[in-house]
Specification:
Elements (H helix, E strand, L loop, with lengths): L7 E5 L3 H11 L3 E8 L4 E7 L5 E7 L17 E4 L3 H10 L8 E2 L6 E6 L5 E5 L1
Parallel strand pairs: 1-4, 5-8
Antiparallel strand pairs: 2-3, 3-4, 6-7, 7-8
Length: 127
């Protein structure tokens, strides 16, 4: 078996409009497809980060809360590579997104920080 890359990551959100604004308007993902699924009573939003990676967002009526922050079974956080972490943090802060202080990863020696999406899902930036 040869897996070549991650095609998409799927997350569940509690507020469709708020999460759509966060990922599209603030983080810059582009919309591929946006559909309401009446049989499931939820929204499904497919977003593109680049030519190889997609984010799939599901917004059901009453999703369960995240059991803990950030340690819970399943997805721990999303991580994105950036060229200049200070510039990205400054841009996020300009959009009202609070970031943790930039620190150095003890294993790789590179700069990193975290912020959260509207549901508290941790998002990491790694330089």
């Amino acid at each position: 078996m040869k897996l070549s890359q991650i095609h998409h990551i799927a997350i569940i959100v509690s507020d469709y409009k708020l999460s759509r604004d966060f990922y599209v308007e603030k983080l810059g993902f582009s919309v591929i497809r946006e559909n309401y699924r009446p049989d499931k009573k939820d929204w499904k939003l497919d977003l593109r980060l680049n030519d190889a990676t997609e984010l799939e967002i599901f917004a059901p009526e009453n999703p369960p809360k995240r059991p803990s922050y950030p340690e819970a079974c399943g997805l721990r956080h999303l991580a994105f590579h950036v060229e200049n972490i200070e510039d990205v943090v400054s841009e996020l802060q300009g959009k009202g997104i609070k970031c943790e202080p930039i620190r150095t990863d003890t294993f790789t020696g590179t700069k990193m920080t975290f912020f959260a999406d509207p549901d508290g899902l941790p998002i990491e930036l790694h330089e």
